[in-house]
Every structure is written in structure tokens, then in C-alpha cells.
Amino acid sequence: MLHRASKQGDDTLKVWRVDNYNDYFSNIVKVPEKEFKSKIADNEKKLFYSEYINKTKKNGLRKIYCVTENSDLYKIQKNIKNNFLDNIMLSDSSYGFRKGRSYYDFLASHKSFYSGKYFLRLDIRDFFGSIEYSLIEDVVSYYFVVGENLTSSQKKELLQNTLSSMTYENKVPQGAITSPTLSNIVFRQLDLRIEKFCQNVDAIYTRYADDLLFSSYNRNLHSAKFINFIRSILISKGFHINHSKTIRTKNLISLNGFVISENDIHLSRKKLASLSRILFCLETPKWINSKASFVNLNMKLKTEGDKHLFEGKYALLNFLAGFRAFIIPIVRSMDDSKLRKKQQKYIVRIEKTIEKIEKLPPKK
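User: That's the sequence. What structure does it adopt?
Assistant: C-alpha cells below.
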């Protein structure tokens, strides 16, 4: 039998307890034991991963490993996520990769109601790549509760099976379906330590994946002492600050095209200009789902100084759907009716464009 349990001394944490060995295979991974073990073996597991090269400004090239969608390993990871990881309580300050929470929510806590607010953004270098196997093992084993019917060797075996399912070459692969949730679970303890520190110094803290955002009316937020204290917390678990991405501002801050100012969050002009440029190209009658169309689109964007690059239909759909998800809560929060009406037109244009692209035949 599989049921919820609470760790002793912390009744707020939700975990699942496995009372019998076979419960793990029937209720968590939902795959027969023999088949499951064959799929997570190293020589078999690598067949389910595709390697992509991601270009970064500072570090050159970075390898990203993605699990093939709907593959056997993908289905196993999805079951582990749904039946185990998603039942572990996360910190209040984490907003990335969470159902019901958006990038807008990540920013909203920092809205200032009068001038003079200080903002600080810290970025974690190589976020997923910094999560060591030993840290994953420690954290997951804490939540992996078994009943008295299982021997210590059986618990260890099931734990190692779970870890093997979620890792690749002893790392957290950025393209695995379990990785975003797993990263939040691993980071929970650090979030709680940072939250406690910020409460003591009258600062607000939220995190979206590798983005750490702080705000306060105390100028000490920008001090080396404050940053070094956060740095010491991160280093304790093997994470490091990417100092080239540190942002210190007062009264307003712009992050990824979103601006937090006095009692307001809005899209930057540059962000809206980029969206308008892309929509204009896609709204022309000549646009079709072809290699030539994407080449022309990318060339046009490049000549106009836009850094977006689309390799195909689904990359485009993901961009538009993501933009729509970002802009909706911003529009809803606007007090200016004229501005809200203007922004709503973007949502309508995005939705019509998504509908058009989805209906396009396969590319030629």
C-alpha cells in the first residue's frame, strides 16, 4: 500500500511512504520491475537522450541533454514526477516550474507602493549542472519513506532506481521532465535559509529557477555584506553566483523585458517591439510552414537587431504561448483602462497567430 506520511518533527512536509516493495512499481513508476530496470540501465538510458548544443554569451557552448518525449524513459520520469516529486512541499519563495505560479507572480511581490525601493537580482551560474549527485541523493532519501516490510537493502535499491531514472551521467539533465521539480526540491532548504535571513533584514525574496530577486527600502540590500551572506548560503550546497549578471537598481528594475516600478509591472518597450515584429511577419498571407519561411523570418529579425531565432513550428508556438501566459496577468493587473485595452489587442493577435500556425500543414 502507498500512502502519505509526514516526517517526524515536520508535519508540514508531504511525502509518500512505500509499505511494500511491489508498491513502488505498481503505484509510482507504473512499470513492471524487470522492464523498469532494463530501461534505466546506463547503456539503455542513453538511447532515450538527445544532445543539443546551446550557445551562451560568456561560456561558449553548453551541452543540454533532453529526453525524447513519449519514450519509455519519459513515461517513467513523468510517473515519478506525478506520483512522488509533486507531492513534496516546496518553499513559498520558489515560483519557477510550478503549477499556478507564473513569472509575473515571481515579480509581483516586489511591487513598490512608494519610491525609494532598492532591487537586487542575483543569478546562479550553471544552475542544473551545479546540482551534485550526492546532494540529490541526500534530499530524495529524506523524503523517500518506506514501511517496516521493506529491508534496508530494498529501500536503498528503490532509492537508487529513482535517482538513476532522474539523472544522466550523475547530473540533473536540463531536458528531463523531472529536473525542474527536482531542482526546486533540492533548493528548498536554501530557500528557507534565505527567507529567514531576509525576514530579519526587512527584505523580500523570491526565486524563479536560477534567478534570485530581492527588494527592500533599506540601502544595505546593495551592500557587499548582504550579497556575501547570500553567497555563503549558496556555496554550502555547491551553487555559485554569476556576478556578471548581478543587477543593483533603485525605484525600478527590468528583468527579461518586464519592468517593476512604483505600484506597477509592465512590459518594456523593447519586449513589445520584439513581439510586434514577430507577429507582423507571421500575419502576412505569404507565411507558410516551410524551411524558407523560417530562414526569411530569422534573417529579418536579425537585420532589425532582434536576437530571437526560430528553428521550426513548435519553437514558434512555444514562444507565442509563453508570451501569452506572461502578458495575461500583467494586463489583468493594469489600472489604466486605455492601456489595458491596448495590451489586450496583443493577446488577441497572439491567439489568432497560434491558431493559424497550428493549422499549417507539415513543412516542405
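The first helix runs from residue 21 to 28.
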